[in-house]
Design brief:
This protein is of the alpha/beta class. The protein has a single domain, classed as Rossmann fold (3-Layer(aba) Sandwich), CATH 3.40.50.300. The protein is 33% helix and 25% strand. The protein contains 10 helices and 9 strands. The strands form 2 sheets. The chain has a 6-stranded mixed beta sheet with strand order 5-6-7-3-8-9, sandwiched between helices. Strands 2-1-4 form a 3-stranded antiparallel beta sheet, covered by helices on one side. A hairpin with a 2-residue loop joins strand 1 and strand 2. It starts with a helix and ends with a helix. The N terminus and C terminus are likely disordered.
């Protein structure tokens, strides 16, 4: 079997309007199949939501797209694609560093513009220590960090996991705004079906393989949600 570098290739002409095409992706870790025969594509300048039950392989998929996990199949990014990544957790409670110092690690970037683009006032937050920020503020600082060098694609692993309920819409509106302002393609892992329907263009539902891939609006169908999660408990939660 060819090595990882050969199995992952970048195509240009065949991608058409797409930023990414994944074909027949299979991932095996410690002898266990985590993802099997996963295929999908992502149009440039759109948002793809990746959802599914715990253990479905969502985070593994993101890590594989970043080239961190060996796999079989093809991952084809548009040539020259620059990728930004925002992790699910960043533990900063005891980190004696300010927002200015954190963002300044990426030299040559405009701190004021990056913060303003995610709806934060630079004057009031630049000298705040990371550990004092709310979950929503920290998430927006991480987004500002990710877009500071103008990536073509942003990958988010559960961007709402540490955000208060009232701040969820604000984070998703921020993602929509930067998608439109900079033409960035967004891939985000989410558990919240309601937000997926409202804030993404396309949905990829996983349970080790593809359960559904298509317009996000179709997830309002209870029968489809039952296929994705196999549990009426989650359906009632989101419906409520």
């Amino acid at each position: 079997m060819a090595d990882h570098a050969h199995r992952t290739r970048t195509e240009t002409e065949s991608l058409g309007p797409n930023a990414l095409r994944v074909s027949n992706l299979t991932v095996r870790l410690d002898g266990r199949t985590v993802l099997q025969d996963v295929s999908f594509d992502v149009r440039r300048g759109t948002t793809l939501a990746i959802l599914g039950p715990n253990g479905a392989g969502k985070t593994v998929l993101l890590r594989t797209l970043l080239g961190l996990v060996p796999h079989e199949g093809t991952i084809a990014w548009r040539e020259g694609t620059k990728i930004g990544y925002v992790p699910q957790n960043l533990f900063v409670a005891d980190m004696p560093i300010t927002v200015r110092e954190f963002l300044g690690i990426k030299r040559g970037t405009d701190l004021q513009e990056s913060l303003a683009s995610v709806g934060l006032d630079p004057a009031s937050i630049l000298d705040e220590r990371l550990g004092t920020l709310s979950g929503g503020q920290m998430q927006r600082v991480l987004i500002a960090w990710a877009i500071a060098d103008r990536p073509d694609v942003l990958l988010f692993d559960e961007p709402l996991s540490n955000v208060d309920l009232g701040g969820e819409d604000l984070i998703l509106e921020t993602l929509n705004r930067i998608e439109k302002a900079f033409g960035i393609t967004v891939l985000l892992v989410s558990h919240d079906v309601h937000n997926v329907i409202e804030y993404s263009d396309t949905a990829l539902a996983l349970n080790r393989t593809v359960v559904y891939f298509g317009p996000s609006k179709n997830l309002s169908d209870p029968a489809l949600l039952a296929r994705v999660y196999g549990s009426g408990t989650l359906l009632s939660k989101h419906a409520h």
